[in-house]
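Hey, can you fold this one?
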Amino acid sequence: MQDSVSLALIGALDADVDVVGVDEAGRGSWAGPVVVGAAMISVAGLQELLERPELAAVIDDSKKLTPRRRIRALDVVRGLFRVEVGVASASECDSLGMTGALRLAADRGLRSMPRAPGLIILDGSHNYLGSQSVVTVVKGDMRSLPVAAASIAAKVARDTAMADLAREYQAWGFEIHKGYGSRAHEAALLANGLSGVHRRSWGYVKRLGLDADQ
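Sure. Predicted structure:
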């Protein structure tokens, strides 16, 4: 990826200020957790990375990378950034709504950081963190290196969680669709009903005529 935003955002910050990229995985899924990744680096460290064009071929929007490339990229990311992830369960997504679940997951990840950042670059257009130190960037995972790093961490963590759930809930095929909507997922739901990790307040439940109280 070519980082078109980070230099502009950090231009007025001191070199020792920490910057954190934040991105999520699993927002639109029907089942499983939502995961928020956070990748921290100092302004000076980020400036050095932005002068290394070879990283553009490794650290990119996680959706552009194959699963194998994402895992390799995460190894690179962990060598360059302090990386944490926070998780909100399917039941928390139901009870809090997606905005609340994202805020909870992000808070869990950010609280694991060694210190508060001076700037958070958040993927998207909505500041679900509520912090004044947040700058939202639409398609930030394609335009900002720290956000791309966070997107890789979130995606790998969530895919791993869904693979674990697939072994526990074998009838729903989570290892294939990762809990997102698909024809195979619909067929599994119609045959087996809702599992213990499906989001029961989501619209697909009513559309498919499923019993949210089962």
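The chain is about 45% helix and 15% strand. Let me know if you want another pass with a different chain boundary.
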